[in-house]
Design a protein that fits this description.
The structure holds 2 protein chains of 2 kinds. Chain A has 6 helices and 5 strands. Chain A is an alpha/beta fold. Chain B is α/β, with parallel strands linked by helices. The chains are: A alpha/beta, B alpha/beta.
């Protein structure tokens, strides 16, 4: 019997994330994040987090390890502009940060669970996941999409 | 042997419903039930008081019936109908997206964590007790059981319920003195950022015309700082114990004009109803009267 609970829950999370309406191979609708959101490069990550989700808030504290991505990471939260500004300043994130109502996570992007991350390559979703830890964040960004697509 | 088993099963049922009785008197449970019913929006306001009173009377009657030396089908039928009604209410509530419990058996966490499962287990106990073949009762055994029940309920009230009320009142007074004179009579809201229903409360605190409140947010400091800016009408501060369980129920406390402490765990319902009222009278302070209706 598998007693690695973290791994068990990770599998469940990945399954929930894969139930997103967006699937690997679909074009990522970046414009739906708002006109002011822009990214650098052809390979970037879009991470959706809810500020009322404990795992998401804990994940925010680990995001510094992806600081080198700069504008290749778009962080989307359900917070207000002021809230986003406060934590961006606090953690000194260089990322692009966008705010959307939580209902729009599902309505516009079909997100079933938060945190939810999309790896986008050449405007196309190559991987969907729900990273919860530093290691999972690094793995999500570094691994090639086709190897880990749900 | 069957008599002992019957008494033990009856004791369990009487304890659960007895806890409801204690809670109704000491923890505003009756009022909380009415608040929930009103927020559900399925009934006219005048019916909410009748149903809430009916639930309280029914639970109290069940506690009394199961502490008496009775063994009849109508006692089991009464308790079963009551439990089925509460379960149907919970199911209706869940279908409408409300996640919290029914406040049926007070605010005690261990009794309300899984209310539908609890009701089903109680139904099984009621049925099992009714099926036991009992012909006569030993009076001394019944008296001993009732004494034990009264003792346990008294101990529970003195050890947990009353101290909790005192702690809540002290916490509210500390928060008011910390917030300053402008919040001397303000309601005090304590919640964890990952608690159930936080999203709805967040929306209400941002957008609804609520009177200024003191919000003790169990969250990291940077997080509370963000909320302080988002909830500009309210006095927000971070509590240190960020590791507190997110599942612990949030609570809203306030005092009536007469100084009586009111408490509810139905934060969303309370704020929602008060916001409706606030739209008509933006400056009215939170108080117990007229909030439902």
């Amino acid at each position: 019997m598998n007693t690695n609970f973290r791994a068990l829950f990770k599998t469940r999370r990945e399954q929930a994330a894969s139930e997103s309406a967006l699937q690997p191979g679909d074009a990522f609708p970046l414009a739906k994040l708002g006109p002011s959101v822009s990214v650098a490069g052809d390979r970037y990550m879009v991470l959706f987090i809810s500020l009322s989700c404990r795992d998401c808030v804990e994940l925010l504290t680990h995001l510094y390890i992806l600081r080198h991505l700069n504008r290749r990471l778009v962080l989307v939260t359900d917070g207000t502009a002021e809230e986003n500004h406060v934590f961006t300043e606090h953690f000194q994130f260089p990322f692009e940060v966008a705010g959307l109502p939580y209902s729009a996570f599902h309505d516009r992007f079909g997100i079933a669970v938060t945190p939810c991350a999309f790896l986008v390559e050449h405007h196309v979703v190559s991987r969907i996941g729900s990273p919860h830890t530093k290691a999972e964040l690094i793995e999500f960004w570094s691994e090639k999409g086709e190897a880990a697509s749900p | 042997m069957t008599q002992v088993l019957s008494l033990l099963l009856s004791l369990v049922i009487a304890f659960v419903f007895g806890a409801s009785l204690v809670s109704s008197w000491l923890e505003d449970r009756f009022w909380n039930t009415r608040l929930q019913l009103a927020d559900l929006g399925m009934l006219p306001a005048r019916w909410t008081i009748r149903l809430a009173a009916g639930a309280a009377i029914g639970e109290t009657a069940a506690a009394i019936l199961y502490s008496l030396p009775l063994h009849s089908w109508w006692r089991a039928a009464f308790a079963s109908c009551l439990l089925l009604s509460l379960t149907a209410y919970l199911a209706a509530k869940r279908m409408r997206g409300r996640q919290s419990g029914c406040s049926c058996i007070g605010q005690e966490g261990f009794l309300n964590r899984y209310p539908i499962a609890r009701n089903i287990e109680l139904l099984a106990i009621v049925t099992a007790e009714a099926l036991l073949p009992i012909r006569s009762w030993r009076v001394e055994a019944v008296i001993a059981c009732d004494g034990l029940l009264a003792g346990v309920l008294t101990l529970w009230a003195c050890r947990y319920v009353l101290p909790r009320r005192r702690r809540n009142r002290r916490a509210m007074e500390r928060a008011r003195s910390r917030a300053g004179a402008a919040y001397a009579n303000a309601a005090y809201l304590r919640l964890h950022y990952s608690s159930t229903g936080f999203d709805a409360v967040n929306e209400l605190l941002i957008h609804a015309p609520l009177p200024p409140m003191i919000v003790e947010l169990h969250a990291p400091l940077w997080y509370a700082e963000g909320k302080r800016k988002a909830w500009q009408r309210h006095c927000v501060y971070a509590a240190n114990d960020t590791e507190a369980q997110g599942s612990s129920a949030p609570i809203l406390l306030w005092t009536t004009k007469r100084g009586k402490l009111r408490a509810t765990t139905e934060i969303g319902a309370m704020l929602h109803l008060h916001a409706k009222k606030g739209e008509r009278h933006p400056d009215v302070p939170i108080k117990s009267s007229n909030a439902v209706g």
